[in-house]
Write a structure and sequence with these properties.
With about 525 residues, the protein is α/β, with parallel strands linked by helices. The chain contains 19 helices and 18 strands. The chain has helices at about 20-35, 55-60, 65-85, 95-115, 165-175, 185-195, 225-230, 230-235, 245-250, 265-280, 310-315, 325-330, 345-375, 385-400, 405-425, 430-435, 440-460, 465-475, 510-520; strands at about 5-10, 10, 40-50, 90-95, 115-125, 130-135, 150-160, 180, 200, 205, 215, 220-225, 255-260, 285-290, 295, 340, 375, 495. The strands form five sheets. Strands 1, 2, 3, 4, 8, 13 and 14 form a seven-stranded parallel beta sheet that branches. It binds 5'-O-[(L-methionyl)-sulphamoyl]adenosine (MSP).
Amino acid sequence: MEKFSITTAIDYVNGEPHIGHAYEKIFTDVIFRHFKKRSEKSFFLTGTDEHGIKIQKTAKTLNITPKELCDKNANSFIEAWKLLDINYSHFIRTTDDYHEKTVQDIFEKLLEKGDIYKHKYTGLYCSGCECFLAEKDLDEEGNCPIHGKKPEVVSEENYFFKLTKYKDKIINHIKNNPNFIQPSYRAQEVLNQLENIEDISVSRAKTNVEWGIEVKSDPSQVIYVWIDALSNYITGLGYKVNSESEENYKEFWPVNYHIIGKDILKFHSIYWIAILMALDLELPKSIYAHGWIMIDKNKMSKSTGNVISPKSVMEAFNLEKPDALRYFMVTAAVNGKDGNYSDDDFKEKVNADLANNMGNLLNRTLNMLVKYFDGEIKAEFINNELINETKETIDSVLKYFDEMEPALAANKIIELVDSANKFVNDKAPWALAKNGDMVECGKTLYSILNLMAKVAILIEPYCPNIASDMAKQLKIDVNMKYSEIEDLMVKEGKLITKEEIHPVFLRLDSEIMGDKKKQN
Ligand code: MSP
């Protein structure tokens, strides 16, 4: 693969980052880090969505300016992604000058083209969704089904975008490209929504919403927050309307994936696609809608008081590195379904997979290598046992990532470690050493270490710190490309000393963990 590019939704900054936002960024980062190993060039775009009535209202209640609120909260998102080792290439804020300017130019271009027109309209506006809702979209009490609040009746003269003009073209594109909307069961949902679409309002009167990008040719109006937000996917790469676009745009648009939550699929697979069609630009190759993360099986909400931040989880478990949380989150859901976070499940899963299974096996094996061979790998130990199992795992991991199933790929990696644990128990290298069968003992240890070298590279997208710790002890390059994994062999010679061996992951709440706390 020559290049790979991916984006996330950009988060609203009217609050702090929570574990749901974190799920999406971790999921995307894991996919990105995997494909980075399979491509020459790669790009990952994320950022924050900073305009709109919600931000304006929140800032007012806090008695600060909207920009002050945006600066403070955008910073919290940036800090959170740093804590979680999210390896993005660019972070866009929709208040960035270059973005605001290009959004204005996009709007003017669509006006010139006749795809945007002025129209007087009365409708039901949900400020949570930042969009007008039809009566039929409301629940029995007349509330927005997502936000549980009554929408406001808004009457304004606004600009409208001719969404209906692109309806058939979008339907054909979805039908002709089975991978365009993923998981595939979501495509039908979008086709159903397309049945009843109408033209959409794409501006708000400044008297009602002040905090937004002004329409250049009509400063009494601000551009609708979704047009502003969706455009980030091209402005963030350096797309320009009236001058030459930057290199990243030429290189990475159209992106391989837009990763978004299921609640905003309509905006991406209908509104955004129509805008791109109106601009005569290429379409993203795929839109992947993930499910929601629940907390103890409940929906996270401010009113329930169960909103948790990634930082609070890391602090509660005294974690310095995010690997365990990243691993747990990404394996919490498959096939775009909802996932669940609970402290107990988290502890149980990472203790079982990362500490007992993976970390322990490496630690035990390295200790035996030191005990029996002074940490040295002799030429006669080198062998290809377990190679078939390893190759099968590498192939399955590739296949699952192609299918956007990092959770299933992780299961395969852990199954490989399971089989290595079984192998070491069956071969019993400690018994071989006791009986003086040193070559067989050395060969067994080598087979495990060689397998673990591959595991380090396979697990890196999930657990970058653990992987680099494993790689350091095995003297391999954790950033090697996928094409090189199969041929990777741990080298002959002195590998490690007693002092250099250390556990790559400590059980949560274990005694060692307690000691570690004391040491700090
Ligand atoms: N600003 C818009 C997106 C514009 S993209 C051009 C928005 N922001 S958001 O902050 O409400 O949500 C950002 C992303 O986080 C969305 O993809 C949303 O689905 C996701 N999640 C928000 N809560 C979530 C969970 N509880 N679980 C998983 N993802 C969730 O929508």
